[in-house]
């Protein structure tokens, strides 16, 4: 019995406000769907953020409808929760999943009402529990769900939990809602969303009563050492790069989805395969300090064509800025250049601090569902003390 774990497709997201980047999100998702149809797993679990917003643009909805229709034709059911991006902002607002559900009927299961479903095939039963994203202030309700899920799952052998949360120490997202011990116990595979990097770890979340002997004898024994390897916690990651710092992880771990074989008696981390797709290339972590660096970059960019042009984010010596801008106009889909100042020691330190603050600010804006590029642009302009800008904001935004 095989299932696919996929997450965080962010359909409708327009990085740098570019049509191409909106299309890249759709392409990455479609590549995954084609690959899933090739593999023909028994079912798919989706850990949320299918859409960038709970009111997705028509192109995003259309892409999702076409893809899920294909899965339905191949008789592959989907189990999906809402992420922080596509959970409706108010209870009275409809979920974008309603449209998919209306089309797929019993081939799409959500977890907003019922917190678990049973997948049955050839006398085998798989318990699938799930709960929509819960913000830090709503974890009491989440823990109630987990209590119920743990209770209801007791008599099943094969169990999957779907969640969309950041868990302490697994993420570099500055905030987190859970500790790993808050998750319901006894599951084989914990299918995570929200963290866009790929993470795959063995955990020890056996039922407490099974472990009482051990913990009584040796309290100081760190329980992460007594895992029997049969419980796996995974974030399959986003399917495209939603922030440029994800590119490093993409180069290291790849992007796409996980394929999990659950019915083996000796289930462990080796039953999880990474299936990779190709994303848009980024050129980051580079500094163009001299003609030689410049030539190397020209050569690198010659490997791309009009449809594969990369996004370039790099530092440049002041005297090369003009020619680099020209090069970027022709050879990059989008670029962000920062001047490398003479006094490298202090400025590189400041650049680093600025980049980190930038990333945190962007994450904050994304979570608040603001238009990231627009608000950040406005913020940078405001920092310059542009009086015309203040007039503009006063006239158009502050009524
Ligand atoms: Mn996400």
UniProtKB/TrEMBL annotation:
Region (Disordered): 210-231
GO molecular function: 3'-5' exonuclease activity; DNA end binding; endonuclease activity; manganese ion binding; Y-form DNA binding
Binding site for Mn(2+) 2: 49, 84, 164, 194
Matching Pfam families: Metallophos
This protein's UniProt keywords: DNA damage, DNA repair, Endonuclease, Exonuclease, Hydrolase, Manganese, Metal-binding, Nuclease
Binding site for Mn(2+) 1: 8, 10, 49, 196
Record bears the keyword Repeat: no
InterPro entries referenced in this protein's UniProt entry, alphabetically: Calcineurin-like_PHP, DNA_Repair-Maintenance_Comp, Metallo-depent_PP-like, Mre11_archaea-type, Mre11_N
CDD domains: MPP_Mre11_N
Active-site feature positions: 85
Textual note on the cofactor: Binds 2 manganese ions per subunit.
EC number: 3.1.-.-
Free-text activity regulation comment from the record: Nuclease activity is regulated by Rad50.
Amino acid composition bias (Low complexity), ranges on this chain: 211-227
Keyword Electron transport: no
Function: Part of the Rad50/Mre11 complex, which is involved in the early steps of DNA double-strand break (DSB) repair. The complex may facilitate opening of the processed DNA ends to aid in the recruitment of HerA and NurA. Mre11 binds to DSB ends and has both double-stranded 3'-5' exonuclease activity and single-stranded endonuclease activity.
Record HAMAP family: Mre11 (MF_02044)
Family to which the UniProt record says this protein belongs: Belongs to the MRE11/RAD32 family.
Name assigned to this protein: DNA double-strand break repair protein Mre11
Organism (species): Methanococcus aeolicus (strain ATCC BAA-1280 / DSM 17508 / OCM 812 / Nankai-3)
């Amino acid at each position: 019995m095989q299932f696919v774990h996929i997450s965080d497709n962010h359909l409708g997201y327009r990085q740098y406000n570019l049509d191409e980047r909106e299309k890249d999100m759709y392409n990455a998702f479609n590549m995954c769907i084609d690959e899933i149809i090739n593999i023909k797993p028994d079912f798919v679990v989706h850990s949320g953020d299918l859409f960038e917003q709970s009111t997705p643009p028509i192109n995003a909805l259309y892409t999702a409808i076409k893809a899920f229709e294909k899965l339905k034709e191949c008789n592959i059911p989907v189990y999906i929760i809402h992420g922080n991006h596509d959970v409706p902002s108010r209870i009275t607002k409809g979920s974008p999943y309603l449209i998919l559900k209306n089309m797929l009927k019993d081939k799409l299961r959500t977890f907003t009402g019922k917190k678990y479903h049973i997948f049955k095939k050839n006398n085998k039963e798989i318990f699938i529990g799930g709960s929509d994203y819960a913000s830090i202030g709503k974890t009491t309700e989440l823990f109630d769900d987990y209590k119920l899920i743990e209770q209801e799952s007791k008599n099943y052998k094969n169990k999957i939990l779907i969640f969309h949360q950041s868990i302490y120490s697994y993420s570099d997202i500055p905030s987190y809602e859970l500790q790993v011990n808050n998750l319901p116990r006894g599951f084989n595979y914990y299918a995570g969303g929200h963290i866009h990097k790929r993470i795959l770890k063995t955990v020890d979340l056996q039922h407490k009563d099974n472990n009482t002997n051990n913990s009584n004898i040796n309290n100081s024994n760190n329980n992460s050492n007594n895992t029997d390897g049969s419980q796996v916690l995974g974030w399959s990651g986003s399917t495209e790069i939603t922030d440029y710092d994800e590119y490093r992880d993409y180069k290291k771990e790849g992007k796409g989805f996980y394929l999990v074989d659950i019915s083996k008696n000796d289930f462990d981390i080796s039953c999880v395969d990474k299936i990779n797709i190709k994303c848009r290339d980024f050129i980051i972590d580079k500094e163009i300090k001299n003609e030689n660096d410049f030539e190397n970059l020209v050569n690198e960019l010659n490997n791309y064509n009009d449809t594969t042009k990369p996004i370039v984010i790099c530092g440049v010596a002041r005297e090369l800025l003009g020619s680099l801008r020209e090069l970027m106009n022709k050879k990059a889909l989008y670029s962000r250049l920062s001047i490398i100042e003479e006094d490298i020691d202090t400025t590189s330190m400041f650049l680093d601090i600025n980049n980190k603050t930038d990333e945190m600010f962007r994450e904050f804006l994304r979570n608040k569902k603001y238009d990231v590029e627009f608000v950040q642009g406005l913020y940078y302009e405001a920092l310059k003390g542009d009086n015309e800008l203040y007039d503009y904001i006063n006239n158009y935004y502050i009524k």
